[in-house]
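Work package 3, deliverable 3.1, input record:
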Amino acid sequence: MGKAWKFGDSISTDLIAPGRYFHLRSNLPELAKHVLEPARPEFASQVHAGDFVVAGENFGLGSSREHAPTIIKIAGVKAVLARSFARIFYRNCINIGLPAITCNTEEIEEGDELELDMQKGVVRNRTKGTELEFPPLPPIMNRILEEGGLVAFIKAHKNLEI
Amino acid sequence: MSGKTLSEKIIGEHCGREVKAGEVVIVDVDLSYVQDGTGPLTVRRMKEMGLEKAYDPQKTIFFLDHASPSPRMELSNDHEFLRDFARKTGSILSDVGNGISHHNSIEKYACPGDIIVGADSHTCTNGALGAFGTGMGSTDVAAAIALGKTWMKVPETYLVEVNGRLPKGVYSKDIILHLIGTISANGATYKALEFTGDTIKNMSTAGRSTIANMSVEAGAKAGIFPPDEETRNFLKAMGREEAFRELKSDEDAGFEKRIEIKADELEPLIACPHLVDNVKKISEIGRVKVDEVFIGTSCNGRLEDLHIAASILKGHTINPNVRVIVTPASRLVYMEALRDGTIETFMNAGALFTASGCGACDGVHLGILGDGEVCLATQPRNFKGRMGDPDSFIYLGNPAVAAATALTGEISDPREVM
């Protein structure tokens, strides 16, 4: 179980992994100290392992920088929930083993206690006593996520297959 | 049975069978590349995969274009890391000064009908030549470099038909800003945008590259132009006419949506802070004083763009309250601008001309904004903090708007000075 951190629409990768910290991209733990800094400056220092990033439309638009989902994961975030995701960011999340869940996040409020059940495809809101269903991932993405991301997948199979 | 879209045809050719939009397939990749912002992570991911060789080193490129030349020790070390890996794998290294990945790609490497994956969201720029170029993250491109293939969902296509003559002061930038402003920043997420119509037919490859580049700002996976006589002429000028092939969607292809744009009704447009789809007509934005004008980079850094701006600045001096930074897209563009006097025009007007590369657009160097500062840029993005300072404001416009703004010190309609 973890707490919801609410963000708005159109959270770009420039807000998640700001360009001014470009020089920290080979030092991800340091870069993670600035995750989402321009959007919510207190986030990086106050987020707890198992918490959730909860946002509106088009989360992760912009640059292909995989550092963006990677530092969200390093910060301890369990999953990103959004009404919709930008394509490259979404694929990056799955590749690095960070669940990106498309669901109706309007019903979640800041601080709600959430629980993610990937098997059943639901987010349980313990604060409100509600359940939010989400559609299953496409089969190939589900396999990649289940095997721990694309690096682990390729290490195991030495190849890409569907 | 309905015909195929251009994207379905290209993807089908790369997986050895006919495909339809919506299918997930494994495709052979013709070219994989990374840049210095994403490349070090790509190399680390390859090492973690236990695959440290490039499947085809001659189809693998390491571009140093984002922090170019390096402004910081940490980034110099990243550059060394990439140079070393390129050497060890026998891959192509495009070092600082050569310019932006996508523009080097369309000049030297990309061919119509190719599938190109790059660890840079603007890899869709390759669509200007009729290649299916798409941006991915470091791990996906690590797999593509090591295995020579990737997986992808065959996208549905939105056919964008642009007809009519572009009015004075209006350019390809305004066509794509109009489209993004109309369908929004996620209006084409997962889709391929295919551009046709007589405006497109009469447009240079440079103009097409601006539109292809910004297709991702509508969320698209690719922005593609059917290769035609213009494509052949561009490739011929690059000394590789043999790369040309004709390729287009079937008449009865299944397009998910058709969007019509009347070019003759457009006017110069501005994307206002802090989102690219916050598009307004220049006549509607009121007085906006600027501190910096940035011309060039991946979206409008080709010779044609520099000519548009230089023709307005020629014989004039920039406003003393503005700094004007010009960054050409590639070494080739730089050399052309050097030879034909364009650089001299900029310098005489009081502008600053940098080495080719991404320049100020990525917020790392060569024109970082300060607190409260305002910039009018021809680059593809205006997100909060994009140019290094989250307390600054970025407006996007075409190269003529940029030049007119450089003269007045506030965002200005180029039609008044042309």
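Chain A touches chain B through 46 residues (CB under 8 Å).
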